[in-house]
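Re: duplicated header lines in exported structure tokens

Our pipeline writes sequence and tokens for each protein into one text file. With two proteins the header for the second block appears twice in some exports. Here is an export where it did not happen, for reference. First protein block:
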Amino acid sequence: MIQLKHLFKWYNVGGTRSFVLKDVSLDIAEGDFISIMGPSGSGKSTLLNIIGMLDEPDEGEYIFMDENVLEMKAKKRTQLYQSHIGYVFQAYHLLDELTVYENIETPLIYKDISSKERKAIVADMLDRFGIVGKKDLFPAQLSGGQQQIVGIARALAGSPKLLLADEPTGNLNSKQGEEIMDLFKQLNEDGVTIIQVTHSEKNAEYGKRIINMLDGQLK
């Protein structure tokens, strides 16, 4: 499904290159569940952002479903992202001016889905995550944990083939965290490919593979 070949990412600091990613190569099969671990600053989130098409490497190749992502025009890349990828961000990235309901509905608006179908999908997500009573609230009216759950519901609303999660349980209590990881496991069993970045060894063990990063390299 995904092939990353010799990825490099750097910033120029005072005339010298400061590497965030160094020669990262990785193959990810459809249906895989990968946990990426490593200390802060090891390049985990940068790697996830490149896979999620939110960032680009300075060198290397990225093949997604047999297509070379880095050679695509921006419009095509956006279409690919919207069609196949769900992203759970550590910092939520909910739209402040939209209600919970509208935030969850957002990824569906870009798909060819009727309004009736969108309503049904959003209702199912609100129900699944126990947030029906919060549907008309705005993100600022929610706790951090509730915002995280809305972010996860939004990522799943579009039935992605690939789910990317950056510290998906970072703002949840242990019971909520466990429920989310069990949900991820179930989604993976249903065929969704998952890549998560986590500091939690317990969460990492839900993955089929654990990949460790240090100083921008895979260990």
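Second protein block, exported in the same file:
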Amino acid sequence: MKYFGTDGIRRIANTELTPELVYKVAKAGAYVLAKHSNHAPTILIGRDTRLSGTLIESAMTAGFLSYGANVKLLGVLPTPGVAYLTKKLKADASVVISASHNTYDFNGIKYFSNKGMKIPDSIEEEIEEILESGDLEKLTAESNKIGVSEVREDLLDEYLYFFRKNFEDEFENLYNDDFVVAIDTANGATSVIADKVYTALGIKHYIINNTPNGININENCGSTHLDMLKKFVTSNKCDLGIAYDGDGDRCLAVDENGNEIDGDIITAIISNALKKENKLAKNSLVATVMSNLGMRKYAKDNGIHLEQTKVGDRYVLENMLENGYNLGGEQSGHIIFLDYNPTGDGILTSLMLLRVMLKEKKKLSDLAKIIKIYPQVLINAKVSNEKKDDFKKDKEIVEKIENLEKEFEGNGRVLIRASGTEPLVRVMIEGENIEDITKKAQEMADLITKKLS
């Protein structure tokens, strides 16, 4: 697709993601999302803390109103908060203005349907067709049908209530006063709400990186830069650290010793606890092909069925909905608890993890022992864009992959895939010895570059 990638539209704000383009995307989106309804659509808009957020919000609002849609402006709110409110308020659709974990100069647009889920590829394709068709001018409301917008930043409290409703009673019984959490909000969308949630639930906490200024989002902080949080947790003797990304749909953790607890480990810990409580639907778990080899072994050892999908949380969700599963996630900390919300939610993930720690009265480092994480090496092979899918057909490459798999005897894994956006083939190898797999990955990447350049 020309505009939409695996996670909406994401570009440098004001030069590539211009107000003109945003206006058109809003108009086209409102048309496609509303054509199956017989009323003026209501669309919610939430954003993260980027400097360009209000610029894009203004252009987006103008596009929606010009088409005849009504808009509720939610202000700074995590992506899952917008998804939750879309369903709760029975809005027709919503938009999140965010570039997630990217630097502040990027921004992006993610559409959500009335079910609070990211819209499918087919709807994005339809929006692109309208954008390219030259018919946008026709999608203009008559004078008496122009939409109106209203600021509804008070709806943040509805999202806060969602956490209170689901966790307040249980945490009141489980919580002990010695337990302390450090939270890194990445100077992003969780900067205000995270503190409100933890305060409302009576959990002792420190908050760092919660003073956004428009350009410090994700800057050496949050789930993509854990060093500051690791130091904070160990020097302040916290029980764990929690790190969100810029738009608040991901969560990674740090144990009491400062070790990283990634999405695979978090998913393993929580799935094991849910299984014990008979709350893991069909004793199954969904992950992507990029999840660690340790995840497969953990699932097998604990009698859990593991499904693996293409990379991207939308594919995890599709699989969950198709098969009636309620837990799925990615290594990046994007974890979906379908019993609560149909999108990854960093704050929800952190509370589910805390719940396990408090219930089982165990340190995070002890809980993490349930899964062995294998070293993983990722090397990009530069290739010609036209040939990047040909690795599957090249006899020498296929043979080398097969020989490596045999050599590992189940204690290693080779995953080769073409990049969706760049002239690259990604070579990922897992195994027990980091030096060994680095050498093997480099050899594989060199062969692919030689054959497919």
